[in-house]
Design brief:
Layout: E1 3-7, H1 12-24, E2 27-32, H2 40-51, E3 56-60, H3 68-76, E4 80-83, H4 92-95, H5 97-118, E5 122-128, H6 152-171, E6 175-180, E7 183-184, H7 193-202, E8 206-209, E9 216-217, E10 220-221, H8 222-233, E11 253-258, E12 264-265, H9 266-277, E13 282-285, H10 301-307, H11 315-330
Parallel strand pairs: 1-2, 1-4, 2-3, 4-5, 5-6, 6-11, 7-10, 8-13
Antiparallel strand pairs: 9-12
Helix pairs in contact: 1-2, 1-8, 3-5, 5-6, 7-9, 9-11
Bound molecules: nicotinamide-adenine-dinucleotide.
Nicotinamide-adenine-dinucleotide binds near residues 35 and 85.
């Protein structure tokens, strides 16, 4: 039986990935601190579902605690490590940069030190489409220039890519960085646009639509994303030999987009929520907000060449599953998302 260490297992993506690995017969060590960036009850509820499945071991802790991940890897000997624990959110990083230094910079350093000592067969870490920043060339390709001055969150994730690249090269650790695009689906994050729109529409509150709706996002359904992660897990990089992978000139390292590959107009996404919920949105059209981008769009070519990946879920189907889960989980009313993280930056996901 293979063992996977998943950091951020109580988080949105970590929960879905862990559940899928357990269903496949993996033993999963789920590591998380259940912090209160958003409602910790949602994290506890996700993890309770994982704990009901045999071969799930829950470990509470902070990734930045010196030596803790190394201790866990020494004890549990995971062949695969997927590092998803991070302080996410673009807007939140403006007011709370220290959380990003602790979780993303120091936490990733601790993870890399643990990997250096215990050498998993494959180390996979989450980066983000936010590293493309103010890049306006579409679709975003891994070989494009990255541009992180618009967000401190993106700066820490770009730093994670550089840190992981150095460790992969120096200590010969096969390493994959994922660049995720706006991920949505059941058990989704309450600080992100799909939640903010759905809760407002179901409660008949107005929603803010920036740039008068002239925006597109590469909304990625969480099960498609997990499928992409899973395929990449089985294809560790072995060096610079992957055709077209010019990002890996030295060492077994690469960065790979995982998106839907098809940007969706924001108004179409809202229309899908209206259709799934049977309610009409009260849209308040507003101008573009500084720092926001008009579109995100993943070029999935490298992922497709490496794994044969193709997304399987239409926005209509994905939104229907999300709204169904939302109604089931929250019943009559959803708790308000924290006001400090609301706003258009949420649309950039991440
Ligand atoms: P999430 O916030 O739901 O999950 C992250 C989990 O990590 C949380 O459960 C949190 O409690 C845990 N965590 C945070 N800091 C920690 C620390 N210091 N020690 C231990 N645990 C800690 O976010 P998510 O949407 O599941 O995202 C997973 C990863 O993917 C993150 O690295 C995020 O930056 C990245 N990402 C997500 C998206 C998206 O659209 N959801 C897009 C791009 C990138």
């Amino acid at each position: 039986m293979k063992t996977a260490l998943v950091t951020g297992a109580a988080g949105f993506i970590g929960f879905h990935l862990s559940r899928s690995l357990l269903a496949e017969g993996f033993r999963v060590i789920g590591f998380d601190n259940h912090n209160d960036y958003y409602d910790p009850r949602l994290k506890a509820d996700r993890e309770d579902r994982l704990k009901d499945i045999p071969n799930y071991l829950s470990v509470r802790g902070d990734v930045e605690t010196r030596g803790l991940l190394s201790e866990i890897m020494s004890r549990e000997k995971p062949q695969v490590v997927v590092h998803l624990a991070a302080q996410a959110g673009v807007r939140y990083s403006i007011d709370n940069p220290r959380a990003y230094v602790e979780s993303n910079l120091i936490g990733t350093f601790e993870l890399l030190e643990a990997a250096r000592a215990h050498k998993p067969d494959h180390l996979l870490l989450a980066s983000t489409s936010s590293v493309y920043g103010a890049n306006t060339k579409m679709p975003y390709c891994e070989t494009d220039k990255v541009d992180t001055q618009v967000s401190f969150y993106a700066a820490t994730k770009k730093s994670n890519e550089a840190m992981a690249h150095a460790y992969a090269h120096l200590f010969d650790i096969p390493t994959t960085m994922f660049r995720f695009f706006t991920v949505y689906g059941p058990w989704g994050r309450p600080d992100m646009a799909p939640y903010l729109f759905t809760s407002a529409i179901l409660e008949e509150r107005p929603i803010k639509v920036f740039n008068h709706g002239n925006m597109q996002r590469d909304f990625t359904y969480v099960e498609d994303l997990v499928h992409g992660i899973r395929l990449l897990m089985d294809a560790p990089p072995t060096g610079p030999a992957v055709e077209g992978d010019s990002l890996s000139p030295v060492g077994p390292w690469r960065a790979v987009n995982i998106g839907n590959g098809q940007p969706v107009p924001l108004l179409d996404f809202i229309a899908a929520i209206e259709e799934a919920s049977g309610r009409e949105a009260q849209k308040v059209m507003l101008p573009m907000q500084p720092g926001d981008v008009v579109a995100t769009w993943a070029d999935n070519g490298l992922l497709r060449r490496l794994t044969g990946y193709a997304p399987r879920t239409s926005v209509r189907e994905g939104v229907r599953a999300y709204v169904e889960w939302f109604r089931d989980y929250y019943g009559a009313g959803a708790p308000a998302a924290r006001s400090s993280v609301q706003g258009p930056a949420m649309l950039r996901g991440k």
